[in-house]
Amino acid sequence: MPATTATSADRAQPIERFLRDVERRALRMAELSTGSRDEALDVVQDAMFGFVRHYGARGPGEWSPLFWRVLDSRINDWHRRQRTRGRWFGWFERAADDEHDDPVDAAPDPAEPGPLARLADGEATAALDAALRALPLRQRQAFLLRVWEGLDVAATAAAMRCSEGSVKTHLSRALASLRGHLEEHR
Amino acid sequence: MKPNDDDAWIERALALLDHSAQNLDAATLSRLNRARQAALAQRPAARRGWLVGGGLAGAALALALAFGIDRPHPPLPPPASQAAAD
Fold first, then answer.
1. Which residues contact A41 (CB under 8 A, 6 or more apart)?
2. DSSP letters along A30-95, please?
3. Which residues have CB under 8 Å from A164's CB, separation 6+?
4. Would you call B16 and A124 a contact, using CB atoms and an 8 Å cutoff?
5. Which of A98, A160, A174, B54 can pair with A143 through a Cys bridge, CB separation 3.0 to 4.6 Å?
6. How far is residue A113's CA from residue A181's CA, in Å, rounded to a whole number?
7. CB contact, 8 Å: A94 with chain B?
8. What is the spatial distance between Cα B2 and Cα A182, in angstroms, rounded to a whole number?
9. A12/B8 CB distance under 8 A
């Protein structure tokens, strides 16, 4: 039926445009949570598959919070898997790390003015990544979804599957922590 | 959320994040593109299209077989010897 075919084609274009629009930011969010570009690509691919399979037939107006919800869920799944893996392999990794622990290497250098004091743009990105990665997962997601992605509190809460009050708490703590880390960029 | 004027560092952080997202390397962009295309290829509409197409093709084949098998054959001409006797 030509009418049905035309409708399907018309629907495919907006969803592809939507994914093309969000995929780079999604990758960066996943990368900040996993610390690995390859892992992040896998997480984003899973999120795209889940989003298209479960929500592709919804109206385009609903897509944004639903996509971020799926991505948030995949990031949480990744962390759960890492925790499980850590329980099994943590002992071996700790034993291996012990061999390289050197208290002199770990001590701060009093002559060093601070990790962010002398940074240009490229280094500032790395410093920001490090500050974001140091945040707890929920705080980082609250910051990225609410501040970077620009979702409102309700949409952020829906994406993170928590209350709006929790979003505000996570965001407030994230901002305080990031401000502390990045003060030297002011 | 719009950052306050006081929070210039937030503006800077957002600019850095935007820049990092816009300047991904070609290999990463290629993998993102492949992931997107693969995800879109399994969307429900496309799957329904396959099912409908497959169903129609199956039905057409079944009909062709049914009509081909059940169609009455034309009567054979009588053997030459019998025709000569008649």
1. A27, A30, B28, B31, B32, B35
2. HHHHHS-HHHHHHHHHHHHHHHHHHHTTS-HHHHHHHHHHHHHHHHHHHHHHHHHHHHHHHHHHHH
3. A153, A154, A156, A157
4. yes
5. A174
6. 13
7. no
8. 19
9. no
In this prediction, residue A178 carries a pLDDT of 92
B chain contacts of residue A167, beta-carbon cutoff 8 Å: none
A22-52 residue pLDDT tens: 999 999 999 999 999 999 999 999 999 999 9
Tell me whether residues B16 and A44 touch, CB distance under 8 A. Answer: no
pLDDT at A1 over 60: no
| A130 in B contact zone (CB under 8 Å) | no
DSSP per residue over A164-178, as a string? HHHHHHHHHHHHHHH
ipTM value: 0.74
**Can you tell me the mean pLDDT for A99-104?**
46
Rounded to the nearest 10 degrees, the angle between the axes of helix A153-160 and helix A60-98 is 50
* A124 confidence band (pLDDT: 50, 70, 90): confident
Residues in Cβ contact with A184 at an 8 Å cutoff, skipping those fewer than 6 apart: A114, A116, A117
Chain B residues near residue A52 by CB distance under 8 angstroms: 39-40, 42-43
Pick from B19, B43, B47, B48 the residue to mutate for testing the A interface (most A CBs within 10 Å).
B43
Distance CA A30, CA A36 (A): 8
